[in-house]
Amino acid sequence: MNRAFLEVSAQGVARGWLQVANMNSAATELWQNLQNKAWCGMKITSTLETATLQDILFFMAYLMGHPKERLCSLNPYETVCKHVLPELLLWLGNLMDEHAKVLSQKPLGDTVLPALKTRDGKYKRKSDEANKFILLDKMEGNKSTRRRVAKTHTELVAPCSNLVQRESHVLTAIYFEKVAKEFGSYKVKQFSTSWDPSTYGGANTLASTVYSPATDTAAYMPNQMVRKVLFGDLDESFLALPKV
Amino acid sequence: MLAMLYKLVSVLGLVFQSLGVHTAHPHITQYKLLITVWLHCFGMEPEPAAPSAKCKGPTKPSFPVATWAALGLRAYFDVSGTPHWLFERVHQQLDVQSEGGFFLRKNQDALKQLFRNFSVPESDFGYKTADREHNEQEPWADHTLTSRGLLLYFFFQLKHRRSPVKVKAAAMAFLQRLTTAIFAEHAAQASTVGITVEDDFGVVNRV
Q1: Which residues of A touch B158 (CB under 8 A)?
Q2: Bridge partners for A227 per DSSP
Q3: pLDDT tens profile A63-119
Q4: Is A84 exposed, middle or buried (0-12, 13-18, 19+ CB in 10 A)?
């Protein structure tokens, strides 16, 4: 068994490819053919002595697309591609992995990629969670009007993603879980409540608390925006009273 | 007693001000300092302040993320530190007729077969079904491929009969851009790879 190495320089020129091609006459002939004949609008532009990695990959791609082609009574797909490609993939994959590790050291918000869209130009419902995190991080400073501001960042997520709304739902659920755990550990069934219907920022808001004298534990309930009462909200029996 | 305490606070406040302690809220600072001095007299330490929102650090996912802005690629890292590239980001750039998830679902058997043929583990194929269970190893919902899987996906597009020529050309161009970018990033060092090939007489050679 012969042993040699394919050495690829920083410019992508592969030394040793000539050795490979000389062993397999089908590979040599096909390389020369692809220098003259275009496939998918491309040709091999380098020679066997100074083959570039791009041309080698193009050569492999052609073989993948023509697995039954025979040259010099040999099948180059079976004799070259099936042996060379796994090792090339392993080597290039490792280089990609290394580079990805370097890229992962950069802060997420520094490199923003646009939101993914379908072919019709609509936003994809669930794709690329990282963009959502970038948006939440950007909006950390916006304590009020978060929902409105989030809808303006259409380069990151869809305006209809309801990200901020979901964020507040999650926060409320986590808070409820904590409160339930605190009171649940004492098996409390009776509470004192106090509430303060007032106006905060122009909106009618109900701020309320619950307190358990038995365990001396209190908790704030999430504030509720109270909208104006509409006729539709009232029971019919109440509607009859003013008429009387 | 209260009046005396108030006077004491005011005097101490003036002393602090004369020493150059100024903030946006001088009264708060004065009281804070007074309380601190008071606690020190009794051998106690003041309670540390709650961390502010700015000290919490950026909001980010539970797994590391790498973004290759030049190529429009993004990778999520699994628990073992292996990057998994977002399939949709690549698929979109090739301008394939069908959507990414649909394409993977339709061709998953052929892709898995190709993975097997070229010694790429089937676990590198990260197609996520709608009814999948939460996986601690890969805690994301997007379709992903490992580096080797991604490279092989380009070759799949090039061999796929139904792929139009413009998709094949785009796949080839992206693959070449990708390899150029890898070498541009690793420009300092040249790399060597050992490869195997069969000669004219059917003998397998390690090249």
Answers
A1: 40, 61, 64-65
A2: none
A3: 998 988 888 878 888 888 888 888 889 989 999 999 999 999 988 888 888 888 888
A4: buried
Q: Is the ipTM of this complex over 0.85?
A: no
B159 vs A64: CB contact, 8 Å cut-off?
yes
What residues contact residue B120 under an 8 Å CB cut-off, 6+ apart?
A: A86, A89, B146, B148, B149, B152
pLDDT at B107: 92
Q: Which residues contact residue A208 at a Cβ distance below 8 angstroms, ignoring those fewer than 6 apart?
A: A193, A194, A195, A196, A220, A221, A224
Q: Is the pLDDT of residue A62 over 90?
A: yes
Q: Nearest-CA neighbor of B75 among A99, A114, A87?
A: A99
Whether B25 has a pLDDT exceeding 50, the answer reads: no
A24: its two tokens: 């397999």
Q: Which residues of B touch A1 (CB under 8 A)?
A: 203-206
Domains in chain B: boundaries: 2-49, 65-187
- Is the distance from CB of A60 to CB of A84 less than 8 angstroms? yes
Per CB-CB distance under 8 Å, the chain B contacts of A91 are 191, 193
Residue in B178, B186, B205 nearest the CB of A1: B205
- HSE of A19, CA atoms in CB hemisphere, 13 A: 15
What is the nearest CA distance from B29 to chain A, expressed in angstroms? 25
Residue among A83, A47, A95, A60 at smallest CA distance from B190: A95
Residue A35 burial by Cβ neighbours in a 10 Å radius (0-12, 13-18, 19+): middle
CA–CA gap between residue A199 and residue B48 (Å, rounded): 33
Tell me which chain A residue has its CA closest to the CA of residue B95: A119
Token output for A45: 């532009």
Categorize the per-residue pLDDT at A56 as very low, low, confident or very high, splitting at 50, 70 and 90: very high
B156, pLDDT greater than 90: yes
Q: Which two tokens stand for residue B152?
A: 């092989």
In chain B, where does DSSP find H-type helix?
A: 2-18, 26-41, 87-93, 100-117, 147-159, 165-185
Inter-chain touch A108–B76, beta carbons under 8 Å: no
Q: Which residue of A has its CA nearest to B194?
A: A5
In contact, A15 and A3? CB cutoff 8 Å: no
User: Each residue of B120-137: pLDDT tens digit?
Assistant: 998 889 898 888 887 888
Give the model's confidence band at A235: pLDDT under 50 very low, under 70 low, under 90 confident, else very high: confident
Q: Which residue in chain A is spatially nearest to B204 when comparing CA positions?
A: A1
User: What's the token pair of residue A222?
Assistant: 């999430």
